[in-house]
Amino acid sequence: MAYSCQLMQESPLLGFPRLRFIHLFVLLLVGLFQISSGIVGQVSKSVREKALLSCDYKFCSEEQSIHRIYWQKHDKMVLSVISGVPEVWPEYKNRTVYDIANNYSFSLLGLILSDRGTYTCVVQRYEGGSYVVKHLTTVELSVRGRCFRRRNEASRETNKNLYIGPVEAAAEQTV
After folding, report:
1. Most buried among 9, 13, 40, 165, using CB within 10 Å?
2. 32 DSSP assignment
3. Which UniProt keywords are given for this protein, alphabetically ordered (predicted)?
4. Given 3-state DSSP classes, what are the helix, strand and coil percentages for the chain, each rounded to the nearest 5?
5. Considering only CA atoms, which of 144, 44, 68, 55 is closest in space to residue 99?
6. Do 13 and 23 contact (CB within 8 A), yes or no?
């Protein structure tokens, strides 16, 4: 993303040097906030689909051994990569694919409704004898449920195992 700030020539603020400086300062602060906020955006998928969450951190593959990468959802760990070795937490085992070459991203397979939420990627780099946070990115994952219409009560009984509505899907996940 590239941001540029320009003052318009017709701006009444240009006649007053002090106001022009304040105007420029505010534009600079807004631009810096947008650049450094680390918010990549939103990923929106349906139940049972795959979601790719990108950390969006550029690096050389030779530097992998001096990085620590942590993916977490709210305050719970999802995935960590230390010295190039990934570790997946139990709730996400067999449902994640980690992609080093794609900016420390990972794919979450077979989405369920409880996967929705805010995911944070933290990249630490070893410098001067300790690990320093170099990058922080937040990705909001939205997971939509699938709803199916019933034709009539008889087809509901016949195809009971095929019907997954929002209430049944929520109950199915809590069992």
Report:
1. 40
2. H
3. Cell membrane, Disulfide bond, Glycoprotein, Immunoglobulin domain, Membrane, Receptor, Signal, Transmembrane, Transmembrane helix
4. 30, 35, 35
5. 55
6. yes
Task: Identify the residue whose tokens are 């550029």.
Answer: 58
Considering the chain, what is the average pLDDT of its residues? 74
pLDDT band for position 3 (50/70/90)? very low
User: Per residue in 124-175, pLDDT tens?
Assistant: 999 999 999 999 999 999 999 876 666 666 555 555 454 444 444 444 454 4
Instruction: Give CB contacts under 8 A, 24+ apart, made by 5-12.
Output: 5/31
| Listed residue (105, 96, 100) closest to 55, CA to CA | 105
Closest to 112 measured CA to CA, from 95, 99, 98: 95
Domains in the chain and their CATH numbers? 1-37 (no CATH), 39-144 (2.60.40.10)
The overall pTM is greater than 0.85: no
pLDDT-derived band at 24, boundaries 50, 70, 90: very low
CA distances to 78, 79, 98, 105, 165 from 108, in Å: 10, 11, 9, 10, 22
Which structure tokens are listed for 31?
């631009």
- Determine how β-strand 39-46 pairs with β-strand 130-144: parallel
